[in-house]
Amino acid sequence: METFIRAYSWVDIRFLLQGLWVTIYVSLISIALSFVVGLILGLIRYTKIKYVSAIVGFIIDIIRNLPLLLIIFFTYFGLPQLGIVTNPTTASIAALVIFEGAMLAEIVRSGIGSVDPGQMEGARSNGMSYGQAMYHVVMPQALNHMIPALLAQFVSLVKDTSLATIIVLPELLYNAQIIYSQNTTYLIPMYVIIAIMYFVVCFCLSTIANYLQKKYN
Fold it and tell me: Where would I find the ABC transmembrane type-1 domain in this sequence (predicted)?
């Protein structure tokens, strides 16, 4: 118990909170951008535009079958070789958006596909264009179907930010490693506190998603 008390000094807690803020910041930006990317790619996949949908589907399949860590390495070490300078934060966000965007694209495609085709046909017969019918009729229903899968993917994204430790992103796990590397007796207390912090963040995300699902219903 004394070890836990020493490990949870205000200096260490403040340092962990700084890492937690980086985790939340990277997660929120990545969630927003990857959802937009996934939505666009998912719509392209669903509409089956000649050649374009096939090419997009091929790229998505490649990305989904690559380890996220490899994509992180590419955005941090590979992009500078192409003249695109990055830092740990930018590289982490780019990698997460690429990887999660591909994952979300399939969720979006499946969500739209789960809506009764008669909904689109009915909207078109009432004079709506394809875009209007998709936006006003199909997508609201599809989003309601997608919320559980989207939530699971977003929670996974939050946890995946810990992989950016490898490129020295000062997020929660990285800061915890710095603390217990200075005193190995703090290892268990650090893992306990970061587990609690991750749980709180993911629980809040789950609560928001449940609220949105009830609102859509």
Answer: 20-209
- pLDDT for 1 equals 67
Find out whether 42 and 107 touch, Cβ atoms under 8 Å: yes
- DSSP string for residues in 60-73: HHHHHTS-HHHHHH
CA separation for the pair 123, 114 (Å, rounded): 16
DSSP element (H, E) containing 32? helix 10-47
Query: Among candidates 25, 22, 29, which has minimal Cα distance to 175?
Result: 22
CA proximity to 105, closest of 50, 43, 154, 159: 43
Contact yes or no for 46/115 (Cβ under 8 A): no
Q: Which residue has the tokens 């500078």?
A: 80
The total domain count for the chain is 1
Identify each DSSP E strand in the chain by its residue range: none
| Host domain of residue 77 | 1-216
CATH number reported for the structural domain that contains residue 188 in this entry: 1.10.3720.10
CA-only gyration radius of the chain, Å? 21
- pLDDT greater than 80 at residue 53: yes
Spatial contact of 34 and 104, defined as CB atoms under 8 Å apart: yes
Residue 25 has pLDDT above 80, yes or no: yes
